[in-house]
Structures are given as structure tokens and as C-alpha cells.
Amino acid sequence: MTASRIFLLVAAVGLTPIALSYGLAPSSSLDYLFGLPIDSVNGRHIFRAIMGLYLALAGFWVGGAFSESLTRPALLSLVIFMLGLAAGRILSLVVDGPPHWLLWAYLGLEIAFGLVGLSLLRSRSRAVSSPQVDQ
Known about the structure:
By secondary structure, the protein is an all-alpha fold. The chain has one domain. It is 84% helix and 0% strand. Helix 1 packs across helix 4, helix 1 packs antiparallel against helix 5 and helix 3 packs antiparallel against helix 4. The protein is globular, with a radius of gyration of 17 Å.
């Protein structure tokens, strides 16, 4: 299995508990983790929708890990997802100030995963554009 495909699996496995913490029981998990009470149907609805988005992307990344034709699109979606989350968190840092320590950790992981994904995309592009010649 290639580094890109292993990376997609690691990202999917790592994202799944985060997704579940947001949407499986948002009223209790978000209050416990971040002191964020979610006591309305609308709040639970929003966080369960976020969970669905996270799990759908994680599923796509698993598909990219096992199907060569999906590996590049899965990596691209991972980069967009991770760096998009990081950009939103950075905006929040500027506008709202510092968050809970766990959200700082998420920011670091999102930037790291986004950059590794970009690196893997570049290396895949180089491998395609300069095929090896058998001697």
C-alpha cells in the first residue's frame, strides 16, 4: 500500500472519533469537552449535520485508500477539508480570541494533515509527469 493510501486511512480513522464527538450525543459530549451546552433541537441538528459531513468525507478517504482511481480525488478533498477547517479556526483566533486547548490541537493537526496531503499530491503529480524508463 502506498504512502498516500495509508495517509488517507490514518486521516479517516483519526477523524471518526472527532465526528462522533460532535454529533453522536452533542448535548453531553460538547458540554463535557468544551463547556459548550447544546440544549436545543437546532443545536443538535447542526452538530449532527457536521458529523455527517465528517463521516462522509472519512468514508470517501477510505474509498481512496482502497481504489487507486479515487486516491488523488480523495487526497485533494482531504487537503481542502483540512486547510478549510484550519482557515476557519485561524479566522476565529483573530476575531474571537484563543479557544479551548483541544481546539488548538485540532488546528495543528489540520494544518499538518493539509500540508502532508499537499506534499503527497505533488509527489504523485511528479511521478505521473516523469515516468520511469526501463533500461
